[in-house]
Design brief:
This protein is an alpha+beta fold. Helix content is 58%, strand content 14%. The protein has five helices and three strands. Strand 2 (62-67) and strand 3 form a beta hairpin. Helix 1 crosses helix 5 (77-90). The model has no long low-confidence stretch (mean pLDDT 91).
Length: 102
């Protein structure tokens, strides 16, 4: 994952509602949930939820799949793993053995 993609993912998840959405989607697994269910479980009004899901989709943190008339959203774990790997390789490399980096 490159720096721009990592920054996009981190900035997209750095919001209380988007982090809650991501946590919920990780917890429910790969099938995901329709937007109506996410809204009901988290108490986020549909218009705000739509905004957050769009931002998260743009950052590849969620994926969408259609089942009938419903769009199911699920957590895209590859994106968050890529951001973590980027941080580990580019920001934390050598931190454990270098007291000045703490």
């Amino acid at each position: 994952m490159d720096e721009d993609t990592t920054l996009l993912a981190l900035s997209a998840i750095a919001h209380r509602s988007r982090l809650a959405i991501f946590r919920l989607l990780v917890a429910v697994g790969p099938r995901g949930l329709p937007a109506k269910e996410i809204s009901a479980q988290l108490g986020i009004v549909p218009s705000s939820l739509s905004f957050h899901l769009k931002d998260m989709s743009r950052a590849n943190l969620v994926s969408r799949s259609r089942e009938g008339t419903f769009i199911y959203y699920s957590a895209a774990l590859d994106a968050i793993h890529g951001a973590i790997d980027f941080l580990t390789e580019n920001c934390l490399a050598g931190a454990a053995g270098n007291p000045s980096s703490r």
